[in-house]
Write a structure and sequence with these properties.
It contains 14 helices and eleven strands. It has 333 residues and is α/β, with parallel strands linked by helices. The protein folds into two domains: 158 residues, Rossmann fold; 150 residues, 3-Layer(aba) Sandwich (Rossmann fold). The structure holds N~2~-(3-carboxypropanoyl)-L-ornithine and phosphoric acid mono(formamide)ester. The site of phosphoric acid mono(formamide)ester has 10 residues, from helix 2.
């Protein structure tokens, strides 16, 4: 694996999930793999889990880590090609990415959607420019439209519980929209659909009218507009708010979609998942978050395993690049 930006960066999502389960069982197996390698983590937006779990995962592999709050501490980045830079942006991404690539063997980036211009957000411009100009593997720490480290975590968590509960057959996995006061990105939901589509699950999406996601991510997905119907018989319930895609970035008002104990009672004693942070009693009731059905803390714990799995794959790729060619080898000898 050369980069980690979409599910297409891995040859097989089910195999990557199996590798993550293996890392969960043997977390110290590759504790020297990252020796003398440096990971750079660039945050344009806040983070708790992604920042700490990825840093911890890198340390578990013997890597050094540098973290930068790029929005506060970096120069304002210009991303337009060929522009006369006489505005507010001091540094072009071409130099910034290339220079960071001089210091880091792997670079992670968090660049949330601005939720003003769908076309601009859906291009995921900055992360692709880093892939083009950094010269090293690039990891998404949540881009405008995807959060692949979260999705790998989510599948790892589902597979772990499936095995533990000895669930036979295809699990019913429901992604439900829930209310929020702020306009949030669609990244977590998009990615969850992108990744679950590659597993043998019965996936159902439920949301109010007006909360439709981009067709790029919902093709082939069953959509049920009645939340209670959707929750019936669910084995896993994944809760997330997102703002409107069609009326781009607008907050959708539907307070009745909050997750309550009564709604959870409709499920097949489903495990409740959320990427966090979650606003209690606005999105999910205390009674549900504090119940045994909630696995949100364990899910967040699995972020470390998912990040470690991805770093192992990228470090193994770097090893293949580090091996001296026959010609270089003969010059050294
Ligand atoms: N990385 C996980 C989720 C991050 C972000 N949530 C947030 O911004 C919540 C902010 C708040 O609740 O004020 C999102 O939905 O994509
Ligand atoms: N779930 C998640 O990505 O959390 P942070 O935003 O805190 O990193």
């Amino acid at each position: 694996m050369k980069h980690f930006i979409t599910s297409a960066d891995t040859d097989s999502v089910p195999q990557l999930v199996q590798k993550a389960l293996d890392v969960k069982r043997n977390p110290r197996r590759y504790d020297q793999l990252g020796r003398y390698k440096t990971l750079g983590l660039l945050f344009f937006n806040p983070s708790l889990r992604t920042r700490l779990s990825t840093q911890k995962a890198a340390q578990n592999l013997g890597m050094s880590v540098m973290v930068m709050n790029f929005d506060k501490d970096g120069w304002q980045l210009e991303t337009e090609e060929g522009i006369v830079m006489n505005g507010g942006n001091a540094e072009h991404v071409k130099e910034a990415a290339a220079v960071i690539g001089q210091y880091c063997d792997i670079v992670g980036l968090r660049t949330f959607a601005r939720l003003q211009d769908a076309q601009a957000d859906y291009e995921e411009k900055v992360i692709h420019q880093f892939r083009q100009y950094a010269g090293v593997p690039v990891v998404s720490l949540e881009s405008e439209i995807r959060h692949p480290l979260q999705s790998l975590t989510d599948l790892l968590t589902i597979e772990y519980h499936r095995a533990k509960a000895k669930l036979s057959g295809r699990p019913k996995v429901v992604l439900s929209w829930a209310p929020h006061i702020k306009a949030l990105p669609q990244a977590v939901a998009n990615s969850f659909l992108e990744w679950t589509a590659l597993m043998d699950y019965e996936v159902m999406l439920t949301h109010p009218t007006g909360a439709e996601l981009s067709p790029e991510f919902t093709q082939g997905v069953t959509i049920e507009y009645d939340q209670k119907k959707a929750l019936k018989g669910a084995d896993f319930v994944y809760i997330k708010n997102w703002s409107s895609f069609s009326n781009y970035g607008q907050v959708i008002q539907a307070p009745d979609w909050k997750i309550t104990q009564e709604k959870m009672a409709l499920t097949n004693r489903a495990k409740l998942m959320h990427c966090l942070p979650v606003r209690r009693n606005l999105v999910i009731d205390d009674a549900v978050l504090d119940s045994a059905q909630s696995i949100v803390i364990e899910q967040a714990g699995n972020r470390e395993t998912a990040a470690q799995t991805v770093l192992i794959e990228l470090l193994k790729y770097l090893q293949t690049q580090d091996e001296p060619s026959d010609l270089a080898q003969s010059l050294i000898l």
